[in-house]
Amino acid sequence: MEKQTATQVFESLSSGIRLDIYRLLVKRGLEGMVAGQIASALDLPPNNVSFHLKGMTHAGLVSVEQEGRYQRYRANLPLMLELIAYLTEECCAGHPEQCAEIRADSCCPEAVLPPLPKTEMES
Amino acid sequence: MEKQTATQVFESLSSGIRLDIYRLLVKRGLEGMVAGQIASALDLPPNNVSFHLKGMTHAGLVSVEQEGRYQRYRANLPLMLELIAYLTEECCAGHPEQCAEIRADSCCPEAVLPPLPKTEMES
DNA sequence: TGTATATTTCAATAATTCTTGTATAGTTGA
DNA sequence: TCAACTATACAAGAATTATTGAAATATACA
Predict the structure, then answer these.
(1) Which of A107, A112, A119 to mutate to probe the B interface, most B CBs <10 Å?
(2) CB–CB of B105/A81 below 8 Å?
(3) Can you give the residue ranges of the HTH arsR-type domain (chains A, B) (predicted)?
């Protein structure tokens, strides 16, 4: 996955309205929803919903299909799975045993820290 | 998970710089990185990195621990797992068989659509 | 045809976010 | 204590994004 794709998806989900839309569509699965249904379900002006749907579509987060005079939107779940893979790519590189540890615990544990390298600030 | 938590995390990852920081920290795992290391690794002004790290910390996406005069940052992977669960909550509600279908295919398939309900636009 | 419906587009304003430079606070070690 | 270093806080301008109302496009149906 390209970095721009990832940031676009995150940008899409960074708004409460778009997050609501996405979660609504996830619940609907393959059935999806038409634009007006989404607007009335969330009690928002249709043109505002359309504005957000356009951005989400451009980011690939949702797909749209014309159905007569309706536009049916569906969540693109596989993209989300790709995104997760992108985020955890090379997770704990070189120390795979840490991955299991991190994933199992409730939060980054107050683990014993390795001492700082003698040469400070080398990348 | 609360909606605000989710939007804050997504907002954090919607910037290319913050996404780079997060992925860098994910790779480092429990070791993490100190602020100056992050800045020089990404070739960015330290105060700009500090600005972004503050937001990420506030969103809970990274944790910070003081280490003498250094501030050591680590990615909060468990939060990401919670976030994914939040997103796919009630996925395909009422039609669990669709979930497997969606997850298996490469993208939302051009599935056969159910006909529109006779009463248009009811939520 | 003509009218109603669904959705999008456009323009304008309000609000937020990003980046840079400068200044401040805290830590280290001589 | 003093000087060097790490990191954050603050302020200002540029840039981006959100919301609303009005207008436009396209489909459906009588």
Answers:
(1) A107
(2) no
(3) 1-95
> pLDDT, tens digit, for every residue of A86-118?
887 777 766 666 665 554 432 222 222 232 232
Determine how many CB atoms are found less than 10 A away from the CB of residue A83. 20
Count of alpha carbons within 13 angstroms of residue B32, beta-carbon side: 30
Please write the tens of the pLDDT for every residue from A15-35: 999 999 999 999 998 899 999
The minimal CB distance from A87 to the residues B26, B41, B107 is found for B26
Option in B11, B78, B106 nearest A107 (CB)? B78
Residue A38: burial class (beta carbons within 10 Å; 0-12, 13-18, 19+)? buried
Percent of chain A predicted with pLDDT > 90? 58
Cα A15 to chain centroid, rounded: 11
